[in-house]
Every structure is written in structure tokens, then in C-alpha cells.
């Protein structure tokens, strides 16, 4: 019974995270997120159409946005963690929210 209750809680939290109301950062500014991404990420990632660096090392932001595992929480966690192959950088909470909002705006319907 406890296992069932635990699984129910996990399923509920997962569905909340995937919900457009709870899972997506409505407070983020996608335009500001694009500016931050252009400055910090644009040397290695294609951050939007027509913005491919000459030597794209990392995945396209659109591809990241469309991964099934990509959520606002997973992006925030990633941006706040050490990166194996990427340079470590510090973003403010506002910049993080803006970049997350921008990446999620690239998700295909």
C-alpha cells in the first residue's frame, strides 16, 4: 500500500511538472533569454534558426527543447550544475529563468 501511495505521489508530481501551468516558467522573458543565450551559449550551440556557430560543439537548443525529459525543472537543474564538457558559468536566477523560458519556447507543439 505504501508503494502504491508513493507511486501515486510521484505520478502526480510528474504530471504537475509537465503541466503548462505549473511546469513552464511564465515569469521568464524569452527575448531576454535569447540575448543571454546568444552571449553565453552561442559560441557552441545553435540557439535559434540562423544562429549556428561556425563550429557547433553542443546540441541545438531546439533539439534540447524537444527532448521528452526537458522540463523547466530539468533545465534549471542543469544550468545550476557543473557541466562536464561545457565551461562552468554562473547565471543569476533571472537569467536562468529567462534562458529556460527561451529554450521551452522552442518546443514544437
Question: If you had to describe this structure to a student in words, what would you say it looks like?
Answer:
Helix 3 packs across helix 6 and helix 5 crosses helix 6. Helix content is 53%, strand content 0%. The chain has a single domain, classed as Orthogonal Bundle (Cytochrome Bc1 Complex, Chain D, domain 2). The N terminus is likely disordered. The protein contains six helices and no strands. It is mostly helical and 109 residues long. The radius of gyration is 15 Å and the shape is globular.
So what's the CATH class? Mainly Alpha
> Radius of gyration, rounded?
15 Å
Helicity, in percent? 40-55%
H/E series: HHHHHH
- Determine the mean pLDDT: 79
Determine the strand fraction and express it as a percent band. Answer: under 5%
The CATH superfamily title? Cytochrome c-like domain
Poorly predicted regions: 1-22
Question: How many helices does DSSP assign?
Answer: 6
CATH architecture: Orthogonal Bundle
Distance between the termini: 37 Å
Number of strands: 0
Amino acid at each position: 500500500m505504501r508503494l502504491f501511495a508513493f507511486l501515486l505521489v510521484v505520478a502526480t508530481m510528474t504530471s504537475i511538472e509537465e503541466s503548462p501551468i505549473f511546469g513552464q516558467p511564465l515569469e521568464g522573458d524569452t527575448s531576454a533569454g535569447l540575448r543571454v543565450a546568444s552571449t553565453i551559449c552561442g559560441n557552441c550551440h545553435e540557439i535559434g534558426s540562423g544562429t549556428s556557430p561556425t563550429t557547433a560543439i553542443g546540441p541545438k537548443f531546439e533539439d534540447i527543447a524537444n527532448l521528452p525529459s526537458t522540463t523547466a525543472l530539468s533545465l534549471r537543474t542543469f544550468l545550476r550544475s557543473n557541466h562536464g564538457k561545457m565551461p562552468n558559468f554562473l547565471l543569476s536566477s533571472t537569467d536562468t529563468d529567462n534562458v529556460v523560458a527561451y529554450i521551452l519556447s522552442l518546443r514544437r507543439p
